[in-house]
Every structure is written in structure tokens, then in C-alpha cells.
Amino acid sequence: MIERRKPIPIGEAVQKIMEYQLQGLTEYVSINESFGRFLSEDLMATSDVPHFDRAPYDGFAVRSIDTREASQSNSVEFEVIDHLGAGMVSPKVVGQNQAVRIMTGAMMPEGTDAVVMFEVAKDYEKNESPYMSIKRSFNKGDNVSFAGEDAKEGEVLVKKGTLINPGIQAMLATFGYKDVPVAKKPVVGLFATGTELLEVDESLVPGKIRNSNSHMIAAQIERVGGIVQYFGKLPDEFDTCFDAVKDALTKVDLLITTGGVSVGDFDYLPAIYKKLGAEVFFNKVAMRPGSVTTVAGYKGKILFGLSGNPSACYVGFELFARPIIRRQLFSKKPHLRKEKAVLEVDFPKANPFTRFVRSSTFIEDGRLKATPSGLDKSNIIMSLAGANSLMILPGGTRGFSAGDDVDVLLLEDQVGSEWPW
Ligand SMILES: Nc1nc2c(c(=O)[nH]1)N[C@H]1C(S)=C(S)[C@@H](COP(=O)(O)OP(=O)(O)OC[C@H]3O[C@@H](n4cnc5c(N)ncnc54)[C@H](O)[C@@H]3O)O[C@H]1N2
Ligand code: MOO
Ligand SMILES: [Mg+2]
After folding, report:
1. Is 294 close to ligand 1, i.e. is its CB under 6 Å away?
2. Is the CB of 297 inside a 6 Å radius of any atom of ligand 1?
3. Is the N end or the C end of the chain the one with fewer CB atoms within 10 Å?
4. Has residue 2 got a pLDDT over 90?
């Protein structure tokens, strides 16, 4: 007689994992390597930006007071006393009816408070000296980019846990972060179990299949921000698997296995957890696919026994392994982002358990819409390629119709959701 497993609700399963306190760690990387990493500290402005008043246009820096009388019928003349490119600083103090020829980005000379664009000035020479004249007036501050208008020193600009994007790279450089504090990537160990598994370059023979799970999960680990330590595939043999798992646990932060978690005669993971003395959080979840997902804690590490069935394996990772990895990367929203979408097609299958349907979610006419990306069975691989989301169809329902509102979890999104969804 096989053991009867008691399925626990999905929310409870997620919570049990998240209660396990795994701390994120910080490391410093060069700004050149920080793109795509997660900030491990709030990013603060180390100075005003810009830190001096500067010209936002090519033209002439003037004292606005001297322009007051300028009009279409009264042109006002200025003596041009200096010439500045970006990076240059004028040693001169600008006096009455004087101007400085200034280029975009150059620091405003002392005394000036407005910039006249070249387009509205007439420049000429008189007695071999440069002059310019204007036929309109300017107010104090016209065409000036003021110190601190972009950022104020001490301001928190980006929160800890944010993914560094190209804009944040620009900020980091602006504030002189040569080395950037980022979350250390958790090392996630990975085994594929199954005597039936062939390597990717092996020819097909009766009864055997190529191992696709480890390639899929490795990509999922990288997508979420972890480092993959792949230990290879294991045959369904207790001693071999036990030794390999025990040894691997000394080398990683989290350990994922695929296959061997159900009630089959060669499903050894449950017995391995038992012999290890690991604390099994759950071994059955009220969901499809991925109901057999088994998760255990062991000496501050978490073991994820994902199903061997590819779609179940994929879903198990996204629901249970993703958030703990993201939390180690300091995310405050470590779970998949949940949004509402309109179901595009009928989904008549009744759902005793909550179902996560691999789906393609897209925007059409300003609305989020979702459609299954292929066959909905846990052994199916092909529907995963087109899946950018998981549609949540709650348990205890008789199926759904086109036009119904459904919840979708976005797989490629970087913002995430808090818990509970
Ligand atoms: N009597 C019962 N049988 C099964 C139950 C059950 O509750 N009672 N649950 C079924 C469900 S649901 C699932 S899901 C599977 C889970 O099985 P395991 O996690 O133990 O995985 P395996 O038995 O090792 O393999 C299942 C399936 O997946 C293929 N597989 C395994 N590894 C890979 C890989 N790396 N790449 C591609 N495909 C892989 C394997 O060949 C099997 O076909 O159990 C049901 N049975
Ligand atoms: O874990 Mo199985 O995929 O529930 O279908
Ligand atoms: Mg099995």
C-alpha cells in the first residue's frame, strides 16, 4: 500500500517556504558588470545633479536685467567678453551689457542668469571685438539648467532590491559608484534524476528520452537571477542519489532535483529526504500541474524536489523556487506578478485543483488577453515555448469561457508581486 499524501493549499505551501529565513548577501561588482544585477542597498544621490548651474543651449549667457529694454523695435547690444565650451569655467565676472558665448553644458559665468539661444541673437564684430544684439527680453532663469534640478544630494533614488537597468547604470556613473553593492547571486544546485534520461547529444533509443528538464530549469534559475551549478543527471538508484544529494548540499545555497518525487517504485527523493533528516514542508500541493512538488529544509538550505514531468517541473519552480531566490536578491516583491486578463478561448476542462495553464498573454487594443500556449498536460513540453505567463484557473470550477476575466502570472516581468497575490 502506498502512502496517501495530503495536499496542502498553494498559499500555505508558498508561506512555509518563505518562512525559512535565508539571508541575502552583498558583494561589490564593477559598474561595468552591474547591469542586470539587483541593488543590495538604496541608491543615494552623492551630489546635486547638475552640481553647478549650466547652459542647456548653445548661445550667450547674459544678465537678464540688461535685456529688459530689448524689443522688436529696440535692439540691445552686448559685448561678448569670453567664449566657453562644456567643461570650461570663465574666470570673468559678467558686467552690465556684457555676455559670454557659451555652449550647452558649460557652467554659467558669474553674474549671468539667463541664456540667449544663438537663434534669437545677431552676432557681429565691432572694432575687431565680438558683439551680439537681441530684440527680446529674458527673465532671470530663462534657459538655465539649475544645480540640483535633476537630483538633490542625499535623496534616495532607487530602492534596494531593484534590478539594475540601463537608466540605473547612468545614475550609478553620475554618482561615482565605480563599485556597486549588489545582491550576491544564490548558487542553485541542480540534478536531473531518471534512468531513462539521455544527454542532449545522444541518439534516441527505445524507452529513453533526452533530459530536457535540467536545461529548462537552468534557464529559469538564470532568468530569476541565480547561478546554476549543474551536477549532471542521476540514475534512479537510491545510494547513488543519496550520496550525490548529500555532497551537493555542501556546495550550494539551494538544491533542485527533478523527477523521482512521486509514489513510484523508483521515486527515491522522499526516502532521501528521510534519510538525510530533512524537514519536509510538504509533499503534495492542491494544484495542477506540479502537485507532487516536494520541498524540504536542511541545515539552512532548501531542497526543491520538482516533478519529473516537464510542465509540472516548470510550474513548481516558478511558484516555489523563484520567490525565495528573488528574496535573496532583496526583492520586496519576489513573487510572479499577477494581473487580470481576458480569456481568449473556451477552456472547458473542469478543475478539481487550481490549474496553472501555460499561456501566451498579450496586449490588444489596450487590454491584456490570454490564451493557452498549447496542450495542458503535465508531461507536455511544447506548450512551454510560447508561454510568457501562467493563467490561474481556480479549483472547484467547471471550466471557463472566452471573455471571462482570469488572473495571469507574468513570467518575464521584473516587477513582481507581494504576497498574498
Ligand atoms: N500512482 C500515482 N502515480 C503518479 C502520481 C500519483 O499521484 N500517483 N502523480 C503523477 C503526477 S501528477 C506526476 S507530475 C508524476 C511525477 O513523477 P515524478 O516527479 O516522480 O517524476 P518521474 O517519475 O521521475 O518522471 C515523470 C515523467 O517525467 C519524465 N522526466 C523525468 N525527468 C525528466 C527530464 N529531466 N527531462 C524530461 N522528462 C523527464 C519521465 O520520463 C516521466 O515520464 O507522477 C505521476 N504519477
Ligand atoms: O504534478 Mo502532476 O503534474 O500534478 O500533474
Ligand atoms: Mg515518478
Report:
1. no
2. no
3. N
4. no
